[in-house]
Amino acid sequence: MNKIITLGTLFILISSVYACNGDGETVDPELTIGSKTVTEGNSGITTLAVDISSNLQLDAPVEIRYGTEDGLAKSGTDYTAVSNGSVVIPEGSTSATIEIEVLTDEIMEFKEDLYINILSTGDLKINTNKTRVFILDDDESYDIDRDADGFITPDSYPSMKLVWSDEFDGPSIDTDNWTFEIGDGCPNVCGWGNNELEYYTESEENARIVDGRLIITAIEGDRSGEYTSARMITKDKQEFKFGRIDVRAKLPEGQGIWPAIWMLGHDIDEVGWPSCGEIDIMELVGHQPSTSHGTAHYNKGGHNYEGNFYSIQNKFSEEFHVFSIFWDEGIIKWYVDYNKFYEIEIADVGSTYPFDDLFFFILNIAVGGNWPGSPDETTVFPQEMHIDYVRVFQAD
Question: Where does the pLDDT of residue 24 fall: very low under 50, low under 70, confident under 90, or very high at 90 and above?
Answer without folding.
Answer: low
